[in-house]
Amino acid sequence: MGKNSSKTKTSENAKEQRSKLPKAVRRFLNRFRRKSCKQEIKNEEETTGQDVMHPDSTWHPVTRSEEGPIISQVSQGGLDSPVPFKVEDCTLESFETIKILGKGNFAEVSLVREKNSNKIYAMKSITRHRHFDEDYQAEINVLEITRGRKFLIGLVTHFETVDMAYLVTDLVHGHDLLYYLEQVERMSEDCARLYSAETAIALHFLHQHGIIHRDVKLENIILNFEGHVKLVDYGGCKFNIPGSTRRHMGTFVYMAPEIITGEQYNHAIDFWALGVVLYELLTGNNPFIAPEDCENEKTYVTQAILHKFIEIPRYLSYRAGSILRGFLKRNEKERLGSCPHFGYANIQLHPFYYNSFSFSDLERNMVEIPFKPPSFKI
C-alpha cells in the first residue's frame, strides 16, 4: 500500500514538474520519447495478446452478401491532382540548401532551392546502411507511384554519390500533426475526423498498389497551408500486398501487436497505427506510451500494446469511441479496414465519417475545412 502510494506521488510530482517546463522543451521531450525502431529484429517467438477492449455494439462491417449494393456508394481511391514539375539530370551541385528540416537514424531532410528554376523542394539525404539497397529502391518506386496524388507527395528527381543517396520531393508548406496537437492539447472531433479520413484515403491508394506504409504516425502526417494532410516518409514502405512480411519496422508506440510478436503481418498494421494517431488527436495522449518514471520503457510499451485495456474517455462521442475500437482490434482479421475486398468501404461507411461527409466529396475539395494553419515561413 505504502509502496504504491509512494510511486503514485512520484509520478504526480514528475507530471507537475514537466508542466512547468517551457512548451518548446516539452515538445522536445515528447519527440525524444517517441523512439523510432527502424532496424530489423529477428523474433520468431509467437506471443498472443488477449483483446480486452470494449466490445463493439451497433455498427457492423460490410459482409460479402452486402458488398454489391453498398460498394457503389463509396469512393474507390484518391483523385489525381496536377502532376508537379519534374527535374531531370540533377546533381548535388544543382541545389542550394536553405535549412535543415529534420534528422533521423539514417536520413536528413533539407529545404533546398533548385538553382536553374529557383523552385523550392524537400531533399532527403540518406546514408548507406544495412538495408539501404532494398529501402532506397522501394522509396523511389513508391514516390514515382504517388507522384501527383492527393494527400501524398511525389518524386521530383533522385541521384547518388559514393556515400549518400538523395531524393528530391514535393515540398509541403506546413508542420506535422504533432506540432499542431501540442498547441491545443487535443483536437476537436471535426479536425480529427478530417485528418484521419484523408490519411485513410492516402493509405488506401498505397494499399491498392500493393504497398504497406509501416510508419504511420503524427510526425509523418503534414498539414499543408490549405488545411489538408500529406502522408510522408516512404522509407519504410514495403511492396507486399497480397502477402505478408515479418521485418520489424516502424515507430514502437505505433506498432501493431502482430509486429511486436514477430508474426507475419499485412496492410492491417497501417490501420492499427491510424487508430493510434486518431486516439492521440482526440485525447492528446498515446494509449501505449510509458510513464515518465518507468524503469523499462520497451517492456512497458510491449505489454501495453499486447494486453493493456484501452480506455475510451467519456467526453468522446459514441461514434468516436466506436471507430477507435474498430481500428485498435488486436486481432488483425477483425480490425476495421483489414478486409482486402471491402475494408476501405467499411471505413467510409462507419458513422464517424459517413454521417459527416463522403470520401468522394473530400477528394473533390467539397468538404469544409475546420482549420487552416497560418502561413508557413521558409
3D architecture notes:
This protein is of the alpha+beta class. The chain has 13 helices and 10 strands. The strands form 3 sheets. Strands 1-2-3-5-4 form a 5-stranded antiparallel beta sheet, covered by helices on one side. Helix 6 (189-208) runs antiparallel to helix 8 and helix 8 (268-283) packs antiparallel against helix 10 (318-327). It is globular. The model is unreliable at 35-85 (pLDDT under 50).
Keywords:
single chain, alpha+beta, five-stranded antiparallel β-sheet, three-stranded antiparallel β-sheet, 10 strands
Radius of gyration: 21 Å
End-to-end Cα distance: 55 Å
Taken in chain order, the helices and strands follow as HHHEEEHEEEHHEEEEHHHHHHH
Shape: globular
Q: Helical segment tally? A: 13
Topology overview:
Elements: H1 2-19, H2 23-33, H3 67-71, E1 95-103, E2 107-114, E3 120-127, H4 132-145, E4 155-160, E5 164-169, E6 175-176, H5 177-184, H6 189-208, E7 211-212, E8 221-223, E9 229-231, E10 238-239, H7 257-260, H8 268-283, H9 297-307, H10 318-327, H11 343-348, H12 351-354, H13 359-363
Antiparallel strand pairs: 1-2, 2-3, 3-5, 4-5, 6-8, 7-10, 8-9
Binding site for ATP: 124
Organism: Cordylochernes scorpioides
InterPro entries: Kinase-like_dom_sf, Prot_kinase_dom, Protein_kinase_ATP_BS, Ser/Thr_kinase_AS
Task: Give a brief rundown of this model.
With 378 residues, the chain is an alpha+beta fold. The chain has helices spanning 2-19, 23-33, 67-71, 132-145, 177-184, 189-208, 257-260, 268-283, 297-307, 318-327, 343-348, 351-354, 359-363, and strands at 95-103, 107-114, 120-127, 155-160, 164-169, 175-176, 211-212, 221-223, 229-231, 238-239. Strands 1-2-3-5-4 form a five-stranded antiparallel β-sheet, with helices on one face. A three-stranded antiparallel β-sheet has the order 6-8-9. A two-stranded antiparallel ribbon has the order 7-10.
